[in-house]
Amino acid sequence: MTIKIGVHGANPSLYLLSRLGLLEPALEKLGETVEWVPVQGTRVAELLGTGAIDFSGTGSTPPIAGQAADHDIVYTAVSAPRPEHGALLVAADGPVRSAADLRGGTIVLAVGSWQTHFVAKALHRAGLAYGRDITAERPPAAPVSSGDTARRLRDGEIAGWVAQGAELSAALRDPAFRVLLKAREIITDRSVFFARRDLVENRPDVVATLTRALQEADNWAAAHIAEAARVHADDQGGTAEDWHRALADLPWRLEPVSDAFIAEQQEAADIFAEHGYIPRRVVVADARVASIEPTVAEALAGAGTALTTSAAAGIEVPALPDRAIPS
Known about the structure:
It is built from 13 helices and eleven strands.
């Protein structure tokens, strides 16, 4: 059996695991192989639902949208909270001083990603509705993305910009911008890993192996931030210095699915349904399989801190193709 794993640059744990060569020998012991499938993060639940992939990871929004579209997914693990991962930026000398001031404005964000959860909840707290009181606009495609969005915010063409990673590191150096809200003030902002239900129920050994390998990749990253930053900069643009700051701020620690995580996801799902982002209400707990959680916890506890494989000694694996699965 070949385990098809969706990978994209916005999930650094999977992105690095796909290059480090840690998972392949571990799956081989189970008689399995792996295929790394480049995907768009916002399509992960759909691709799981159609069988195009078996496992992947995103932020908090895609699995909720996936449930609302009747894709049968199961949460397997989450990262620790990412308190410095993202922020909503506004013009330093502009009129926006609170979330309520965003009414009628345009916010540039990665629509369908964790950023939608962040913005929707921030607006909800201010008595506003995502999709009714603001215009959510996707950034232009790289490489002009952050530069063009920064110019538009500086010139007053947009009300706000949700930035993350290296682009946030770069923006924070610019006195033209001010942080209106940090993601940590609104949501826990975790990476979320999820899979096809049949994989979870029929092959818990594979799920455990995937989870352990992800934590081992995180262990490598925590000990090799400079190298991880260089790889991200070479493949995704930005400077190694900005990536170093962004990656150093990540927790690099995975956790089993918890009641608190399910409750936060449910709160997000309810906000999305109330304001029309998803077509119907969902029960987030339907995507939880309690029987897998002790297995995941054991796998995480067993992830070693010292990696000795030659593949982990240095990243010399060719870059992933810069493409997503065709529509």
